[in-house]
Amino acid sequence: MNRPQYIERMIEIIKRMPGVGPKMAERLSYHILKMSENEVGSLVDSILKARHIIKSCSICYNLSEHDPCSICTDSARDCSIICVVETPQDLIAISKVKDYKGLYFVLGGVLSPLDAVCPDDIRIDNLIKRLKSDNINEVIIATDTDSKGEMTAVYLAELIKKIGIIDIKVTRIGYGLPVGGDIEYADEVTISRAIAGRREM
Amino acid sequence: MNRPQYIERMIEIIKRMPGVGPKMAERLSYHILKMSENEVGSLVDSILKARHIIKSCSICYNLSEHDPCSICTDSARDCSIICVVETPQDLIAISKVKDYKGLYFVLGGVLSPLDAVCPDDIRIDNLIKRLKSDNINEVIIATDTDSKGEMTAVYLAELIKKIGIIDIKVTRIGYGLPVGGDIEYADEVTISRAIAGRREM
Hints:
Two copies of one chain form a homodimer. Chain A has seven helices and seven strands, in the order H-H-H-E-E-E-H-E-H-E-H-E-H-E. By secondary structure, the first copy, chain A, is an alpha/beta fold. In chain A, helix 1 crosses helix 2 (22-34). At the A-B interface, helix 1, helix 2, helix 3, strand 2 and helix 4 of A face helix 1, helix 2, helix 3, strand 2 and helix 4 of B.
């Protein structure tokens, strides 16, 4: 017997999500079929509501219910320092550490020639514009410490120097993080040490 | 910064699904936020459609678009033999093996005293009713070969003998399956061997 096509279709769609293999997609689909009306309602509603309400902050590109987001409008923060991260998840991970009081900028990815991700595909232009217009003293580059993150950090540091914004100090998040690691999964103490140990590039 | 509540809610709901940890739920949620309108539409639509259209077959409790399902209405099948499985996924796994031509019965779980799953919580009554009314010669018990599946198989075999349906042969799926294994994840050759090597209980 073939699986009913409506189950098959749900499995097909769920299978495309990151980190979900065919067996996992099957398991999730059958679980959804066994959930109560109420639970399925909550699941679908939470997806649609989040999609409808969450927007990208027009200053830092963080995901937020408001634009600008609560970090960009927080007057207690040090506006002269920007921490550049790959994703909104990385931003959340760093913001849990109380020692960093500056602002953020979400690149939305990293350079990756093999995947054909070039500077135009991530928000490098927007970052440069912001560095030129705002009164920034320091940019902490907190991309992941894997090869793509490193390459992007080096590219950004050179670009900032090249376009002549010479009064901005460009630093790289300190190697309290294990090399090859993923910021999103680091513990708070490690992130805290990495921020304290940042070095100029 | 705290995560926006609408993202948090989506993570909370996805986290409750089987095999999904907090980090995985976070990853899936952010992925959903990055998906196109079209993709999210397909995801939600596939969930709602599957929930709306898929029903439980009133004879074998398989999930199907029709009631009775295409297996129960297939006149080419041997109606005198029933294969008892735990879940619709197990049924699909066994039905992929072309050598079994009988019918099925989905128990909807296994006995598990520690989780307070007793005979009334799974479809043992419905199975007994079907054995009494239909003209069945053999019941193959194909619950998983882990401790709960074994216990359920023994319980069923004794129950069928006790209630005096003496002309029914009760067999257990053969141990081509590695003991402690999960039928859903077995390969077709192993399942085929296990069916061929079934033994009377």
